[in-house]
Write the structure tokens for this entry.
Amino acid sequence: NAGVMQNPRHLVRRRGQEARLRCSPMKGHSHVYWYRQLPEEGLKFMVYLQKENIIDESGMPKERFSAEFPKEGPSILRIQQVVRGDSAAYFCASSPGRDFLRYTFGSGTRLTVV
Amino acid sequence: GQQLNQSPQSMFIQEGEDVSMNCTSSSIFNTWLWYKQDPGEGPVLLIALYKAGELTSNGRLTAQFGTTRKDSFLNISASIPSDVGIYFCAGHPFSGTGNQFYFGTGTSLTVIP
């Protein structure tokens, strides 16, 4: 039973390019969360999605960032026109519902903007 | 947003020593979680706490949900080299909606063999 799969593991983008981060939740999990971790800091919540719906995007920057979780396929976190401050580790977690014990994180995507 | 402060920020200890770390919040939480993060990996859940005053163990790890609901503590007994990593507290606020957690700033643990 595969865990939460994130790809790519590492992503390098030049300023102004777009970054697309993918997250495939665990089998049977329909809730997906994205968190951002800046160097030497804790994780900060960005967005919570269920299939085809954004439930809570209160942690998402208002501009350049968007997320989706389509009926088929992985969840995508998209960052347009990246800037150096977007460099961070982006983690996805999934759960089958409101069960904290089954909230499982992926290994993250490390985005570096040069 | 919610603020969770962890202390200490880092610890360097000898193998076999016990470790204590804590986490405090500015508001009441109804769930506390402790995670461990290895380099290059995502956090892995160690212990979950649901009630004020609750004391829960997982092997050599023991965590407590503070009676004020604004703090939590993690103890590791008889540390071993594989305990190295960053330990994060996380909480779900009492007044929170949705399923997000707020994370602390982390305690980096180094165990010297």
